[in-house]
């Protein structure tokens, strides 16, 4: 029927992060095995002499568990050095630096993931954040770019974002939302966001742009409320299946 479909931005981000993490798979497998060995009774007792922190293993299907594992390693790596039984599994200095850098990256990406879970996040916010992520991690464009293969209706999504920014539409974008046009209106200033994380910084910078197009077409307000994720649906299904 030619109806536009908007995919889940959270799903796209998860795919991009999983791809990024896969580039460090060998090192992450080593750390996971280290965590496994540190959970044995003898090694756990030895580790307990130097820290109260416990080993954390990852679930390869959830990148958040990899984030937690790397975070824990960085937190207690100095204590782990005292456990002789796992010395061969302990990453050397260069790899430790790679893990520290990976942790910084995952913290930044996690802030974007959390921002996507907000009910106030719009398609415009998603585009601003994804463009910022791509600038920092170019390889993620495969899933996060405006015209990525995973995007079902790129012209529609691009048009909605441009309407929110009151920018001029291309012919293809105009056609994609023609059925939503209801009249003409003048420009209004977008709200600004306070910058306190990587995601918030991207939104703050993106919303500081100056938009002004007089007598621009006015569109149905439904376009301003298109949900960029299906997180609410997933929460509902999760609650339903848990009962």
From TrEMBL:
<protein>
    <recommendedName>
        <fullName>HAT C-terminal dimerisation domain-containing protein</fullName>
    </recommendedName>
</protein>
<dbReference type="InterPro" id="IPR012337">
    <property type="entry name" value="RNaseH-like_sf"/>
</dbReference>
């Amino acid at each position: 029927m030619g109806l536009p479909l908007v995919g889940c931005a959270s799903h796209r981000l998860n795919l991009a992060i999983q791809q990024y993490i896969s580039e460090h798979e060998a090192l992450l497998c080593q750390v996971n095995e280290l965590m496994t060995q540190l959970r044995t009774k003898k090694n756990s007792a030895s580790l307990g002499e130097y820290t109260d922190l416990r080993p954390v293993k990852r679930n390869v299907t959830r990148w958040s568990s990899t984030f937690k594992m790397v975070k824990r390693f960085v937190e207690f790596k100095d204590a782990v050095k005292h456990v002789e039984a796992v010395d061969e599994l302990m990453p050397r200095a260069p790899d430790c630096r790679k893990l520290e850098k990976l942790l910084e990256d995952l913290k930044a990406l996690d802030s974007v993931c959390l921002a996507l879970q907000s009910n106030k996040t719009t398609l415009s916010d998603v585009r601003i954040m994804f463009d910022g992520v791509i600038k920092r991690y170019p390889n993620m464009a495969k899933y996060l770019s405006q015209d990525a293969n995973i995007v079902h209706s790129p012209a529609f999504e691009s048009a909605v974002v441009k309407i929110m920014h009151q920018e001029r539409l291309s012919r293809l974008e105009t056609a994609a939302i023609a059925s939503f046009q209801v009249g003409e209106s003048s420009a209004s200033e977008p709200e600004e966001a306070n910058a306190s994380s990587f995601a918030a910084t991207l939104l703050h910078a993106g919303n500081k742009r100056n938009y002004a197009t007089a007598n621009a077409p006015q569109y149905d307000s439904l376009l301003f409320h298109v949900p960029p994720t299906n997180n609410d649906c997933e929460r509902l299904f999760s609650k339903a299946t848990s009962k």
